[in-house]
Predict the structure.
Amino acid sequence: MSTIVRKEEVHGPVADHSLQAFAEDWASDQEVFKAVHWGKAMMWIFLLSDTFIFSCFLVSYMTMRSSVTEPWPNPSEVFALSFGGQPIPLILIAIMTFVLISSSGTMAMAVNFGYRRNRRATAALMAVTALLGATFVGMQAFEWSKLIFEEGVRPWGNPMGAAQFGASFFMITGFHGLHVSAGVIMLVIVASRVIRGHYDRTGDYSAVEIAGLYWHFVDLVWVFIFAFFYLW
Amino acid sequence: MNDMTTPAQTASGHHGPPPPAADHPVHPIGIYLKVWGLLFVLSALSYAVDYFGAEGWVRWVLILTFMILKAGLIVAIFMHMIWERLALIYAILLPPLALGTLVWLMWIESEYTFWTRILFLGGEG
């Protein structure tokens, strides 16, 4: 029964954005998120909770940075890399940003090809996404080891200034890097199911879109980390 | 019960790839390439803020502007939010607004801590 009801409630390619449609969805007995795959709704709710976790880290970073009396280490100099003696500010972080944005672009196209039922293009684009994600994690590992072994940054102190710098840095970028790593594993699993034709058999490519949502979220969080931690 | 089965799939059974989902809007690839390009430009601009050493209010306004534009593009287009129903859009995008209260409270708290350190701890801590 419910399947028949929901088919009639799909209003074509663009959802009805009137307040009346919104009120009707929330006032209905059966389900609020109509014409939305349950996995997609759950992923969105998970991402909402994850938003609050990352926000807690960023707000505690703000609290620490604005309450210290020692100077905060200048990220522009801390994360500079020298090529032939001339230091370029934040260059590694900039490259990491472009890598992650590119991976989001390939992921968005993978979702699109999934709904076109193009198995090979979907799997290939997801593989590229996973590869770019792994590149990002690799560059982060390089950045961490440079900071730990060459600059002497520790969670409890560093030679450049306020001791809280290390704690914020390792916590925020570490938690984000963990998300990227988990995302790469998830992408590899879903891509291998795509190439083996699993979603062609079930007729449902939603898993690709759901994996995509998670991946775009990881990119989204990086936008905020880049702005608040590295650029501020 | 909740499976999003397409009518075409039930008709053709489980043999061969089913046709594109009928209840799913498939957008042209071009829109993703355009957004990708825009995100590259915006990232380059925010990097330029640091590279050319903008300071003070100019720096903060520029950083926040580029950040909000990038986040908006990712959520709206890459995460398909503009094509979702209002019920989902509001359920996901409204709760984070509560974070403004947390930021405000912790900002007050950090000012208090800062002046405590200056006035009573001689700038230590």
